[in-house]
TrEMBL record:
Coiled coil: none annotated. It comes from the Bacteria. This is Membrane protein.
Length: 311
């Protein structure tokens, strides 16, 4: 006998709204974009010289903070490390945004072209174009080199862009956005940090908040409606992306470029309880969300634990 009032799980009840819910979210995000979008070329003072004694990234967020090696470094060397790590993170940000733009274009390719959902995706792509140019300009102004990811990770991402499921694309998008967002929210109000870095992170935080909302809403819908095989592949690809992300987060070449022993620095970062806590705290809002919608299961969850991003 079919019950007259079948029980529906909270996840399914929240996500199984009509398509007009997707359109309503997109319209609100478009309105927010119209109110709070920035042109970094005119919004920021790119000609101002760096201020003496100021950091390029908060010291507590640097990979070597509170390690034995950190305690042997001079203040000048620590600030120099912050300059190179900021360049490394900006380089990583560009890599992620190039991936994200391609995944978004794939997502909307067969969607109704006049829908608000597609229009917001195009708006987000335009945002990401500005962000990538902004990060590249920040690297150039900071005077440190760009730090591309390794050829292995570069080509793994090429595979991801080809085979990723739709929910997998949005899960990986959130992975790239939310941990950096956590760090940037601590950076832009920090008066110890260079004004230009604070300005860049402020713009990115404001605009990325919309991108995170868009990705979360779509991922929640997709995880309810996608076939079982696609949900399983999403869990695995997301876990593998977390593992790669944790390794690629800081390019080890930064240690060589500030006069440190690269092998020793990498070993101390891996052993650092402080660093592990920073990364897990930065990922917690995301991992809680992914757990809630059913992404953090099975082998995928084990990959997240292996990445060090999940306690």
């Amino acid at each position: 006998m079919t019950p007259s009032n079948p029980v529906v799980s909270p996840l399914r009840r929240d996500a199984l709204g009509p398509l007009k819910d997707r359109e309503e979210v997109a319209r609100r995000l478009l309105e927010a974009s119209a109110r709070h979008s920035f042109d970094p070329d005119t919004e920021l003072d790119w000609n101002a010289p760096p201020e003496d004694g100021k950091w390029f990234w908060p010291p507590e967020l640097l990979s070597l903070y509170d390690t034995p090696l950190w305690r042997t470094m001079s203040e000048e060397q620590r600030i120099e490390l912050s300059r190179h790590e900021a360049a490394s993170l900006a380089s990583l940000g560009i890599w992620f945004e190039l991936i994200l733009m391609q995944l978004l274009v794939r997502h909307i390719y067969d969607k109704p072209l006049t829908s608000s959902h597609v229009r917001y995706a195009l708006t987000e792509i335009a945002d990401e174009c500005r962000h990538s140019k902004m990060f590249a300009r920040l690297i150039e102004r900071g005077g440190a080199p760009a730090y591309p990811v390794t050829p292995l990770h570069h080509n793994l991402a090429r595979i991801l862009k080809t085979v990723s499921t739709t929910p997998g694309s949005f899960a990986c998008t959130l992975l790239g956005e939310e941990i950096l967002d956590y760090m940037q929210r601590l950076t832009f109000p920090d008066e110890r940090v260079q004004p230009l870095v604070r300005g860049v992170t402020r713009i990115h935080v404001v605009e990325e908040a919309r991108h995170v909302r868009y990705a979360r809403e779509e991922l929640r819908r997709q995880m309810v409606s996608c076939p079982r095989w696609e949900a399983g592949l999403t869990r695995l690809s997301c876990g593998e992306a977390a593992r790669v992300f944790s390794v690629a987060f800081v390019n080890p070449a930064v240690y060589t470029n500030v006069g440190l022993d690269r092998r020793e620095a990498v070993a101390q970062v891996r052993a650092s309880g402080h660093r592990r806590e920073v990364m897990q705290t930065g990922a917690k809002r995301l991992t809680d969300f992914l757990d809630d919608i059913g992404v953090m299961r099975g082998a995928g969850r084990r990959l997240w634990r292996a990445s060090g991003l999940l306690a």
